Give the backbone structure.
Amino acid sequence: MTDTSMPETGLRPPAPAPRDRPPDLFGFLSAARSNPLTTWTKAHFEKPILYGKGVMGRVLVLNEPQAIRHVLLDNASNYRKDDLQRRVLAPGLGEGLLTAEGDEWKLLRRTLAPLFSARNVTGFLSIMDDSAQRLVARLTRRLPRERDMSLEMTRVTLDVLERTIFTHGLDRDPDALSRAITRFFEAVGPIDPLDVLRLPDFLPRIGRLRARPAIRFFEEVVGELITRRRALIESGADAPRDLLTLLLEARDPETGEPLDEISVQANIVTFIGAGHETTANALTWSLYLLARAPEWAQAIRREADAVLGDGPATPQTLDKLVHTRAVLEEAMRLYPPVPFMSREALGPDRIAGIRVPKGTLVTIAPWVLHRHKTLWEEPDLFDPARFLPECRASIPRFAYLPFGAGPRVCIGQSFSMQEAILILARVLRAVDLSLAGDGAVEPLHRVTLRPDRPVVMHLRARRD
């Protein structure tokens, strides 16, 4: 089998149909709260740039790669995360790397970047492989069987984070942390009309009230972990070289100052919440698509047999999992982990000849960008061949943004990709998968892009 021999699947996975025209104010607020994916119109998927005024003020929607590059890279200093994103995320994730701005963000980025160096990420590979093989052992026990694979992907990615961020583990039930993360995103995910209308923060938001128990749980669990680890380090004992220790020992390269307690806690919560959730969703969507495209599942299986076998994973073997990577990247194209990002113009600018006044909301939505008719051939079809080595280079850099781009590109990108490729290959090598029941599932935008229901699958022993 060669890279160019992969057949077309003809699979058109589920997605909300775009609207013919924009909704009115009430319709927008209702759709944005139930599922923001349903607010997009056909024009958004057909025109490179749309500009106008609406409920959120002056809005510029970009689907043109060079214009996106201008905002996220070339003139990134003129654009900051808008207040709506911060209002949604900051109450739970604190002032971590995901929500910080300005000098505070620069300090955090400088301090945390070394934690995700190629050397450190590669050093976690054996832990990730062990977690993947523990997952396989769990899945293959008493086959055939049915399992909720969205839950299993949540468990394995949380297992990886638990063992890389806090090696000594949690004193709590790990599933309790998983449930708290899910409750948090389900609570804050629905966009509150009060935030859209930019009404004062002292007015209560239903989502924030519902998220409080989960937030308290995060703070309690992470606070205990930090206290124990700091005491271990100060005692002179050998502390595990995991992310928690690295965070506590991190120093600003320019000033030599350590992170304060609040920053350490906020960034641990960010890594657990945002990192775990997005990778689990990417894996879940990949498995869902593979269950409906058996020829690609077989391609991954053969590749994993030839490259991984029963031996330990290495960086060199992961580089050879080209079909596995292609499926994962195509899954993130169709179902981007973060389907929406926006920036507010700090000063006047000009984008693609359009005057952009100060305060303009600039929207870049991977959900739309990755399905745009001017950028992709048959954009609604599942076709991992787009991402095979001989085709991947033809994709414009700013047409595909599963991890963002520019200075604020996801700091854990290489960590997440290494983990997801390995887990996907191990699972497909171990079992045959098919969807249980009618397999009905729809994408739901709740900060991240998750399935709207459990993804239940039949697991059987391999037949080849």
In short: DSSP finds 18 helices and twelve strands in the chain. The chain has a mean pLDDT of 87.
